[in-house]
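Chain particulars:
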Amino acid sequence: MTNERFFNEMTGAGDAARAPYAAYADWFAGEDPKTLLKKSSEAEAFFRKIGITFNVYGQQEADERLIPFDIVPRIIAAQEWRQLEKGIEQRVRAINAFLNDIYHRQEILKAGRIPAEIIANNEAFLPQMIGVQPPGGVYTHIVGTDLVRTGENEFYVLEDNCRTPSGVSYMLENRETMLQMFPELFTQMRVRPVSNYPMELRRSLSEAAPPGFNGSKPCLAVLTPGLHNSAYFEHSFLADQMGAELVEAGDLKIVDGRVAMRTIRGYKPIDVIYRRVDDAYLDPLNFNPDSLLGVPGILDVYRAGNITIANAPGTGIADDKALYSYMPDIVEFYTGEKAILQNVPTWRCSEPDSLSYVLEHLAELVVKEVHGSGGYGMLVGPAASKKELAEFEAKLRAKPANYIAQPTLALSTVPIMTKSGLAPRHVDLRPFVLVSPKSIFITAGGLTRVALKEGSLVVNSSQGGGTKDTWVLGD
């Protein structure tokens, strides 16, 4: 059954499968639904066994949860993916150029393409980074670009994740699970691999090492806030997969102007830190003095060019939602080209006319906190109660600059496996991009998040969403 208001990625507007799904639909028609439901349960047991969980903050029930996994893949044609790759690479290059400019000459501000106050009054902009040149000139080593689809050839960027994008471990484990459960499908269909991501991550980070590192191979470490962080599984998983050290603040100290980690043979210098600690907690000497998660003095070592921090401190200004609406201008300013990927139309509530429009149409819009993430602090107008609308109106009137608003997009659907057969659910996609001084690598696919609740548009795992394996077909 299809809802004509939403683009169904498997069937389009009709009942026959679209070309990318044709081989899968033929295979599915010959399978026993009971067997497939049993495989769904097996997948859940597998995820539970290896501990793929995430933590939910601020809730009274058990804080550790399993992310639901759906066994029906999301399938993207080769030519669709080529167009997405072009748009993603263009956007990531522009973001890196913007960060370099905003912490140096600030030409985009002088040209009046974005207002100066959107930078000056933004807590994500770090004055400590002004004039600092990261090793190799790379600010955003790992980027997660959230995409949504509304039609056959209509894709929008929902947001850019330039600070510490998460979810790549779920992408990898989703694929591993599907390979174990349905090996015959991978022999029938030309599905591009994703398992090379950890080694590509290691290569990309190694290429971004400071010029003066010692030895043939740079020493890499993943800095985690620790066991109680919501993405700790991912931190340990990636460190293990790429053969890097997993370290916490207590394992590190500054020795002879280098960041060094404790080993059984004394302290060993680190060349590249893939940090999963937010800016504010990275260095108690330079940022939040109460932080126990960071390394005192690490920013001074970084400014001296003796370590690479990925992603660079201060990159959060590029994925701030207040800046998002200026991304088409940013892309054009730094590339000289029109943006290939569209932005979602956005009202900046800091502007009086926009605020008036948003207040009048609150029940139709999605309203987000400028600094929010993970689906927290947002309002989905069409799904909100009168009480929730009234409460959000009060928030908007009190602090309008804290919010942006967007239309409720008709997100595409992909089928999930239910007890009564296939049923459409809304999805988004987070491809992962690796940037080094030498190259840009985009994983063939990414993490598809799915709103498992019928009619829901919120795909975040913290809000009840699940994940799917994403298949990009080869030529």
